[in-house]
Design goal:
The chain is an all-alpha fold. Helix 2 crosses helix 4 and helix 3 packs antiparallel against helix 4.
């Protein structure tokens, strides 16, 4: 168990890492990468909404799991 705490320092650190991974998942990375390449303002706005949605959906999945565990 000491190796886990060496990486994350505490239970809060573990939870923070899990939530960060859930929120900034592969879908987020894909949309964010595309957003960085776009020059059209309308497409940029659409992709910004897609980034926000991917963050929300990733967070919602993890929070639902945590609520169920509580």
């Amino acid at each position: 168990m000491s190796s886990v705490y060496a990486l994350f320092e505490s239970k809060v650190g573990i939870l923070r890492a899990l939530m960060s991974r859930a929120i900034f998942n592969a879908d987020y990375e894909r949309v964010a990468a595309r957003l960085r390449e776009v020059t059209d303002p309308c497409e940029s706005l659409r992709l910004t909404a897609a980034v926000a949605r991917s963050i929300y959906e990733g967070e919602e999945k993890e929070l639902s799991l945590l609520r169920g565990a509580a």
